[in-house]
Specification:
single chain, alpha/beta, five-stranded parallel sheet, 8 helices, 8 strands
Length: 269
């Protein structure tokens, strides 16, 4: 090591910056972020150079994230991956679901409650895969869980990835190229319910069915099965109607035959 310099945010400065940035404060100062800041430069003979950060410009970090996002989209487009997962096919009815989420995520509980207490009494086999939904470990956890599901791919009809809400900064972890590539290339449909923002993150762009919230994902699956049940009931009604028409026609033929037999019998006698 040739040289080093400390960067610190003192308590009063942190309060000021947090009030200015609001909900994105924690995401802005996470490890690995590129930031532009205003600082007081101090030098101590023993402790060396120190930057006492007094203010942070969030537009710089957000601008870098958007630039990286566009590069990732272009790369996926050039590799013909943007619509690959959309071409996978859901079965006639969804029964077995692999869910990737965090046990701490309120969205996961909303999804489970909504799908298990559906008004049609549909029953699902749900297997849960715990994953970080925020922070630098999102990419690693999601890809590891997708690989685990891949090992038992025949057991599942689809994969559901849910988080539920968050700021644009919080959801930027789902703009990661490696995650998006794995989702795009996954052999069965991936359904997402990541957040509420108007702009889709990249994992939603490549997913089979991107929904806004975990509850919307549950509604989508229930409605999908309801449409299948409606087709079955419609086919049942068609069979019953056709059967009744055949029976009526045959009854008419039997009445004619009965009259013919009686007339012939009398005539012969």
């Amino acid at each position: 090591m040739i040289a080093k310099a400390q960067g610190v945010i003192w308590y009063k400065s942190a309060l000021f910056i947090k009030k200015k940035l609001g909900d994105i404060f924690d995401s802005i100062i996470e490890e690995g972020r590129q930031i532009r800041f205003k600082a007081k430069v101090e030098f101590h003979e023993i402790f060396g150079l120190k930057f006492s950060i007094e203010d942070i410009e969030p537009s710089y970090t957000l601008g870098n994230l958007e630039m990286q996002r566009q590069k990732t989209i272009e790369k996926l487009k050039n590799e013909n991956l943007l619509y690959k997962n959309q071409n996978t096919i859901l079965p006639k009815a969804i029964k077995n679901i692999a869910v990737i989420s965090s046990t701490k995520a309120a969205g996961y509980q909303d999804f489970i409650s909504h799908i298990e207490n559906n008004p049609y009494n549909y029953r699902f086999n749900i297997e849960f895969y715990d994953s970080s939904m925020q922070g630098n470990s999102v990419s690693k956890d999601l890809i590891n869980n997708l690989n685990k599901i891949l090992q038992n791919i025949s057991h599942f009809d689809c994969v559901v990835i849910i988080r539920g809400g968050g700021s644009k900064m919080d959801l930027s972890y789902f703009d990661n190229y490696d995650i998006s590539k794995n989702v795009a290339e996954f052999p069965i449909p991936v359904i997402t319910g990541i957040g509420h923002d108007i702009d889709k993150n990249i994992i939603e762009l490549v997913a089979h069915s991107p929904l806004k919230t975990p509850i919307a994902v549950a509604d989508y699956i229930i409605r999908y099965n309801m449409e299948f049940e409606a087709q079955i009931l419609n086919n049942l009604n068609l069979i019953l109607n056709n059967a009744m028409n055949i029976i009526k026609n045959k009854e008419g033929e039997l009445d004619i035959l009965k009259t013919y037999i009686l007339n012939q019998s009398v005539s012969r006698l």
